[in-house]
Amino acid sequence: MNLSLALATAALLAAEPSSPLPPGHPPVPPGTQASPAVSPEGAQSGALPQGHPRVDGASATPAPSGALPQGHPPLSGTGKAPPSAEELLRQLDSTEGLQGRQKTFEIAASLGRLYYLNGRNADAATYLQQALDKAAATRAVFLAQRKKLGKAQAPSAEAAGCGFTPGQEVESMGAVAQERAKKGDAAGAVACGRAALEPTLETGVMRANALYLAGDVPGALTAYAAVLEVEPTHEEALYGRSALLFETKGEDVAALKQAREGFEALQAAHPQGARAPAAKRLAALVDETVKAGGRSKLKASRAEDRRIRLSQAAAAPGTDAPRPLTPEMMDAVNNTERTPELEQGLAKLVEEGEEHLARGRYQEALGNYTRVVPFQPENGRAKAGMAWALVGLGRPMAARVWGVAVQTAPAAVEALGDTLKAKGDAKGARALWEKLAADAPDFNKAGLQAKLAQ
Predict the structure, then answer these.
(1) Which tens digit of pLDDT belongs to each residue from 232-283?
(2) Cα→Cα distances 103→9, 87, 371, Å
(3) Which residues lie below 8 Å from residue 179, measured CB to CB, with a gap of 6+?
(4) CATH class for domain 319-331+338-453?
(5) In degrees to the nearest 10, what's the CA dihedral of 162, 167, 170, 172?
(6) Measured between alpha carbons, how far is 342 from 436 in angstroms, rounded to an integer?
C-alpha cells in the first residue's frame, strides 16, 4: 500500500461530516483551539490536546506532499502509518454510500486499484469505471478531433503548449483539451487530450483484467478494445485482448485471426517488450489452430498423430522400423525451444527426405521424417513423406500412417508426387497418384486424372 493511496483514501473518508478526525487521533475537547504560539512547556490556556505533534513557533514547516508530519499520530490504531490495505478495506466497507459519493478520477482509480490488488474484482471494476467516467468527455473529444485531424501528425503535449504539470488532475487536463477543440484547434485538442488520457490507459487495462477475473469475458474484451481505441499499440491491452480471444474463442476462426493480429502487432510495436516472447509463441500456436480449423480439430489431429507415433504396430524386434516415442522423449520435444535455426534444420531434413524418396532410399527418408514429425506434427510435407516411405518399405503401420496423411493433408500428398517427378522419379510419382486417387476418390479427381493421363 503506497502512501499516496492511503492518504487519498483517508481524505475521501475524512469528507464524512460525522468523522472529522482520522481513527486513532487524540480527542480534541469541545472549544479547544491549538495555538502555534504555545511553548513546549505549554501554558494552560490554549494548550494542544494531549498527544498532538509539537508545533514550534508560528511558522511550522509543512510536511512534504504525501508524507505525514513528524510525530503525527498514526492514521490507524495499529501503530503503523499509513494503515494497511486490510484496515483500509474494512474502513471503506463500513462507510455507507461510498460507491455513490462523488470522487475525482484519482481517488476513484486509487480505490479501484486497492480493491483489485486485494482480489475484490467486482468492486474494483465498479470504482475503476467511476474513474474512467470522469474522463469520458475528454475521451469523446479526443476521438472526435483525431478523426477530424485525419492522417496529419499531432504534436506532443509540450509542442502544443498544453501547459500540463506533473501530478495535474486528469479532469483539469481534459478541460484544456476540450477548450482547444472549442477553438477549432484539432491538433492541439488531440495532443492535450492524448496526454490527459494517459493515466486512463492503465486504469482501463486494470478494469479489463478485473472484469475477466470476475467472470465477465465480454465486458473484459470490450474494456481492452476501449484502451486500444485510444492507443492502438498499447502493449498490455494488445496482449490481454489477444490472449483472452485465444483462450475463450478457440472454435471461432475469425476471432482467432484477430488474436493472431494482436500478437503480431505487439511484436512489431514492442519487439523488446516483456510480452514480446510470449506473444511470439502464442501467435504461432494461434496460427496452427487457425490452420486446423479450430481448437477441437487441432486437438483431434494431434491426438491422432500421437497415437500413430506411439502405435504398438511398429515392426517386429530386430527390424529398423521407427520405434514409438516414450513419454520422456515427448517431454524433451515439447520443451525444446523453437528457434529459427531449428526450423531451418527441420526444413532441410524434409528436403533431404524427398531426395531420398526420389532415389528409392526409403529407410534414409524415414529417418529424416521421424526427426521432423515430433516437432512439426502438422507439417503436411513431412506427414506425406513419412507415409510414402513406410509404403515403400512395406511396414505394418504403413496403411494407418498413409490413411492419416491422405485424410488430413491430401494436397501435400499430391504435391509430393510433383516433387518426385521433378526429381526424376516419374514412376514413383505415378504410383503415388494412383494410390491417392484410389484411397481419396473425392479429392481433386480431375487434377489427378490429368496427371495420370500424361
Answers:
(1) 999 999 999 999 999 999 999 999 999 999 999 999 999 999 999 999 999 9
(2) 11, 21, 63
(3) none
(4) mainly alpha
(5) -60
(6) 31
